[in-house]
Amino acid sequence: MSPLAAQIGAELSLVRRNGEQLLITLGIPLVLLGFFGSVDILPTDTDEPIDFLVPGILALAVMSTSMVSLGIATGFERSYLVLKRLAATPLGTGRLITAKTVAVVCIEAVQMALLVALGFALGWTPVSANWLLALAAVVVGTFAFAGIGLALAGNLRGEVNLAAVNGLYLVLLLLGGVLFPLDRLPPFLRAIGRATPTHALADVLADSLMKAGGHTATSWVVLIAWAVVMPAVAARTFRWA
Amino acid sequence: MAAVEVENLSVHYGPLRAVDEVSFTAESGEITAVLGPNGAGKTSTIETCEGFRRPTSGAVRVLDLDPWAQRTALHREVGVMLQDGGVYPSARVGETVAQFCRLYDRGAMAGELVARVGLVERTTTTWRRLSGGEKQRLCLALALAARPRVAFLDEPTAGIDVNGRDDVRGIIRDLAGQGCAVVLATHELDEAERLADRVVLFNRGRIVANSTLANLRSSRTTVRFRSSPSLDAQRLAQHIGLEVVANGDEFIISFSSPDSSMASDLVSRISVWLGSNSFPLHDLNVGGERLEDVFRMLTKEQGP
Fold it and tell me: pLDDT band for position B302 (50/70/90)?
């Protein structure tokens, strides 16, 4: 077995072992979609709330896995000197990041399958869906959120990182336009919301899944900018121990 | 060529000179103990050898590789045991050893390694449920996963019970016996005394002794005795013209001894002085130094 395969095995094993974290990562988006998709209490400003909710919750799921889950786990690995110990093996940074990426992608694949299935069950009817573009958006979003999570994990102590990542998750949930349209926010907060990767991903997913894509150039630019800048920041500032 | 070569190495953190122009070597098949008080520069030096730190100046070669510039190549050949941690709390013993063995092209057999460090009964136990000694054993196993040509072991027997220490010492001796250069960082002088072929003693970022254990002990003579704790060591030191280290009711005088008559003359002068000042004299002993004495003397001499 190659070093990469060994590390992928270890990463997936840790994901399985941290069941409570996995439950939150998978569970929160499912509960939000199930509840708000069934009970029409959100000001979605659409005839079919589920059509608004599914792309937003998919964006939220990407954020949960690649920023919150990856960021918290990596932060604690740094605190426990796991990363320092691995740095003294021939594994190397590239294979370590690849192994973590594979673990994230595996969770996201399960998340997407469950959320899309739940969306269909709740009556979601995508019109002219461009699934390939949506998949590309998820990949770019994963880079953006993983960059944010690793930038925090590589610079903050385990407990501080835990608080910071969860706090940021809440802020992005509220300002990202995933549960209600950004137009409902005051102009100042609306401007901030449009600059978040969460809104950018939700917007391009909604466009790809409901309008065949191609109508959200600004959101693509915002999303790609986050996906380029944050991994670069993480790579530059990350401390292994 | 030595397995580890450190030449005029300096490591600075801002204005702090953690390591100041130190040089030493560690040979294949030998156990080199790196000793010194806290903050002496041991960890910075070893971490530079492991490729974790970049030298401020000077040169380090491990297996003829530059640890900073050729880290990946180096890490195929070296085993590292951190002083603390390094394993995720929910990771199991067997899985962790197996994972590390697979990271190396010619890694050890995981099952054999678990047995060698005495953790067969704990194969499915998670790190968080291991005792302190068992954690040390697991960390040692991870360091051996590479079948290393150089092993950097930081406090390998810390927290391990007496019998367990003998097992770990046996493993380390076997490792050196197979040709591995073992660099052992420890605070426990007894450990170094039992295991080391060579001792490198750090103090305040500099090396104050670098020799084989036998040479280090034989180069100086120690006179030790017990007396009243109220004995003024300074007054005695002034009288005999040598430094006197007081440790409770034990007094130690260490000196270079080119002439064997010097020791008997000194004993005579001490006896007379103690008698004339009405201090008792018990357990008088003259001999080569223990490592502990060398450590105490050399790290004290460099003090403020």
Answer: very low
Return the number of other C-beta atoms located less than 10 Å from residue B116's C-beta: 19
- List Cβ neighbours of B171 (8 Å cut-off, separation of 6 or more): B116, B117, B140, B144
**Mean pLDDT for all residues in chain A:** 89
- The tokens for B48 are 């530079």
A64-97, pLDDT tens digit by residue?
999 999 999 899 899 899 999 999 999 887 788 8
* Minimal C-alpha gap between B291 and chain A (Å): 31
- Cα-Cα-Cα-Cα dihedral of A85, B68, B32, A78, to 10°? -20
Residue corresponding to tokens 């009243």: B228
A97 interfaces chain B, CB cutoff of 8 Å:
no
Geometric angle at alpha carbon A135, from A133 and A137, rounded to 5°: 70
Selecting from B75, B85, B146 the residue whose C-beta is nearest the C-beta of A81 gives B85
The whole-angstrom separation of Cα B288 and Cα B221 is: 5
Distances (CA, A) of A6 to A154, B50, B103: 23, 23, 7
Distance between B72 CA and the closest CA of chain A, angstroms: 5
Residue B253 has pLDDT above 70, yes or no: yes
- Give one DSSP letter per residue of A59-101, joined into a string: HHHHHIIIIIIHHHHHHHHHHTTHHHHHHTSTTHHHHHHHHHH
Identify the CA nearest to B98 among candidates B45, B149, B145: B145
Lateral strand order in the sheet of B220-226 = B244-247, B250-256, B220-226, B282-288
ipTM for the predicted complex comes to 0.78
Mean of the pLDDT values across residues B192-205? 90
By Cβ distance, the residue of A5, A14, A88 closest to B50 is A88
CA distance A143 to A208: 19
**pLDDT tens digits, residue range B139-194?**
999 999 999 999 999 988 887 888 888 888 999 999 999 999 999 998 877 888 88
CA angle B270, B271, B275 (to 5 degrees): 115
Whether A18 sits inside 8 A of B90 (CB atoms) is yes
Q: Across the interface, do A10 and B91 touch by the CB < 8 Å criterion?
A: yes
Q: Name the token pair of A146.
A: 């993983």
Q: What is the pLDDT of residues A109-158, one digit of tens each?
A: 999 999 999 999 999 888 788 999 999 999 999 999 999 999 999 889 88
Which structural domain range is residue A88 located in? 3-237
Tokens 């407990």 locate to A159
The answer to whether the beta carbons of residues B138 and B108 sit under 8 Å apart is no
C-alpha dist (Å) from residue A3 to A94, A232, B91, B256: 11, 25, 17, 54
Report the greatest alpha carbon distance in chain B: 72
Quote the radius of gyration of chain A (alpha carbons, Å): 18
Q: Is B68 an interface residue toward A (CB < 8 Å)?
A: no
Comparing C-alpha atoms, which of A214, A212, A216 is closest to residue A128? A212
Residues A172 and A160: beta-carbon distance below 8 Å: no
Total of domains in chain A: 1
